[in-house]
Amino acid sequence: MTDMSKSKGWCCSPAGCYKFNKDMEKPQTKEICICAAMKMPDGYIVRGHRHGDCFHTASVIPRYADMSFESVPQGFVTSKNRFVTREQGRKLQDAAGIKSADPEGYRGNTLFSEDLY
Fold first, then answer.
1. In this structure, what DSSP letter does residue 58 have?
2. Structural element, H or E, at residue 30
3. How many domains does the chain have?
4. In this predicted model, what pLDDT tens digit does every residue of 27-70 receive, in sequence order?
5. Helix/strand/coil percentages in the chain, nearest 5
6. Which of 1, 10, 25, 62 has the greatest number of C-beta atoms within 10 Å?
7. What secondary structure letter does DSSP report for 38?
């Protein structure tokens, strides 16, 4: 993989490298999913590498320690720091032209953390 961070006209961040547009004002980017997440009833977003990591993290936060996570919405945090559902996340990945990292590909219209990395 080529290191684009020192190439003229490229902007690099933890989410990846993007070529600047012709006016060099801002990078051309599409919103993508960057990590698994759960949206707690009070609006707090718990993030993790996989959704199982979110469950574990939430279980050690005192206010959620005795809570059942079955009805807590699962989804993803995006490159624009938004929480999206699994279905919305799949649409974002498709719109950005990102293929699943899972060797078996996407499963239906739902995004899984295995599709990210």
1. H
2. none
3. 1
4. 547 999 999 999 999 999 999 999 999 999 999 999 999 999 99
5. 20, 25, 50
6. 10
7. E
Q: Range of 51's domain?
A: 33-115
Whether residue 45 lies inside any domain: the answer is: yes
> Is position 96 within any domain?
yes
3-state secondary structure 78-110: ECCCCEEEHHHHHHHHHHCCCCCCCCCCCECCE
- Name the region of 97 (left: φ>0; alpha: ψ -120 to 50; beta: rest): left
Site of tokens 């005192």: 62
Contact in structure between 66 and 79 (CB atoms under 8 Å):
no
Q: What number of CA atoms fall less than 13 Å from residue 9's CA on the CB side?
A: 4
Burial class of residue 67 in the structure, from the number of CB atoms within 10 Å of its CB (0-12 exposed, 13-18 middle, 19+ buried)? middle
* pTM, rounded to two decimals: 0.74
In a domain, residue 27? The reply is no
Q: What is the mean pLDDT of residues 2-16?
A: 52
